[in-house]
């Protein structure tokens, strides 16, 4: 019996690659636009808002034997919302003080702010941040930079690098005075210590870059890290001397959605990490091991936080994890996103995304429906780093 597939992703780039991979196995998959929502042997690969989570949970509760698989979990705000994740890390480190997250997640503070008039009260709650910002104003002190991020916004929205409380107040006041409803509705913010010594590669004009790592979660719960890693570069050379007055998004922010303002070619903005020049195999391997260790520890803790992260046995999900490497080759986890923007990979590296989907179909989708894992060989692989009651 073939597997019926409902496929509809809003991004044409992503939708086409998934369709191509499924059509390679047209002996097993049948793409369809019409069937009942709970047909047996059905794969739903849809946008989050289109998935019927009530149906998925009902099938689990009823111990239904129907084979239905969806491409997203319902509850995962503990991973995806920056403030929720920061609270999880605080709680987890209190229980596990030797966790690798202590050294691989930047110092983070949470601001609960409904209006700029209440910033003083919010900073009183985050008193350690308040004290550091005050110290930054003193003479003969090397100021510590911080970066502000909205908890629920992505694509580098509403980022602000600052040193003092006055600069933070100016950012919020200017945004609210413009009657920006989107920011007025954002209540949770995080403030992280800005990593001002990123790893720079002279061969790439010392432009700052971060790593986009695809992490796959399946059922309840296995976690894989994909070794087809992207290096996303800023458009212009990094300048650590930039301050709040001269801050240039095209030097500091490495998201490709920001770089559309530049005229740099796609191939110069997005590269494959394991093909970067001037980094030897040993260094790349050590960085990858750090990444796997961080991902494993994140899900080791999150798996027990069922109110904010709830994997279910008839679903899988792909996340985009962002990491930064500093000049000492230490890796820092920055944030995670669901339904990552695959098109930022560009056309020249689309094979990397295609192989991700091929691996997912071969090693996760087909076994779920009772088929043996495919023996097809891809250059890039999924690496199992966490399984319930097991660590690797």
Automatic annotation (TrEMBL):
By its UniProt entry, which Gene3D superfamilies does this protein fall under?
Answer: ATP-grasp fold, B domain
Q: Which organism is it from?
A: Rotaria socialis
Xref: PROSITE patterns:
TTL
One GO cellular component term, please give it. Answer: P-body
- Its signal peptide is none
Q: Which domain of life is it from?
A: Eukaryota
- UniProt cross-references to PANTHER family, sorted A to Z: TUBULIN--TYROSINE LIGASE PBY1-RELATED
Q: What is this protein called?
A: Tubulin-tyrosine ligase
């Amino acid at each position: 019996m073939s597997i019926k597939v409902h496929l509809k992703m809003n991004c044409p780039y992503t939708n086409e690659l998934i369709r191509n991979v499924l059509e390679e196995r047209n002996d097993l998959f049948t793409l369809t636009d019409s069937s009942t929502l709970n047909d047996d042997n059905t794969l739903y690969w849809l946008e989050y808002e289109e998935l019927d989570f009530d149906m998925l949970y009902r099938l689990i509760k009823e111990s239904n034997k129907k084979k239905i698989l969806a491409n997203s979990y319902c509850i995962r705000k503990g991973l995806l919302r920056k403030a929720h994740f920061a609270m999880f890390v605080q709680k987890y480190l209190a229980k596990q003080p030797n966790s690798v997250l202590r050294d691989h997640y930047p110092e983070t503070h949470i601001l609960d702010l409904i209006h700029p008039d209440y910033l003083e009260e919010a900073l009183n709650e985050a008193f350690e941040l308040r004290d550091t910002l005050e110290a930054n104003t003193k003479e003969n002190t090397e100021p510590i930079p911080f970066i502000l991020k909205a908890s629920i916004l992505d694509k580098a929205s509403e980022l602000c690098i600052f040193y003092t409380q006055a600069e933070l107040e100016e950012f919020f006041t200017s945004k609210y005075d413009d009657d920006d409803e989107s920011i007025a509705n954002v209540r949770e913010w995080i403030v992280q210590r800005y990593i001002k010594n990123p790893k720079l590669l002279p061969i790439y004009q010392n432009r700052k870059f971060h790593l986009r790592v695809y992490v796959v979660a399946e059922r309840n719960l296995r976690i894989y890290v994909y070794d087809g890693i992207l290096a996303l570069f800023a458009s212009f050379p990094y300048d650590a001397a930039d301050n709040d007055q001269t801050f240039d998004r095209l030097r500091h922010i490495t998201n490709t959605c920001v770089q559309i303002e530049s005229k740099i070619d796609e191939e110069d903005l997005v590269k494959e990490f394991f093909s970067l020049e001037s980094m030897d195999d040993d260094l790349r391997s050590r960085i990858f091991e750090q990444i796997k260790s961080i991902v494993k520890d994140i899900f080791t803790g999150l798996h027990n936080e069922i109110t904010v992260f709830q994997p279910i046995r008839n679903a899988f999900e792909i996340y985009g994890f962002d990491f930064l490497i500093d000049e000492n080759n230490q890796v820092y986890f920055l944030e995670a996103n669901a339904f990552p923007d695959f098109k930022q990979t560009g056309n020249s590296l689309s094979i990397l995304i295609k192989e991700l989907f091929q691996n997912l179909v071969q090693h996760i989708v087909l076994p779920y429906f009772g088929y043996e894992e495919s023996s097809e060989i891809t250059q890039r692989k999924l690496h199992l780093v966490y399984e319930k009651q097991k660590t690797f």
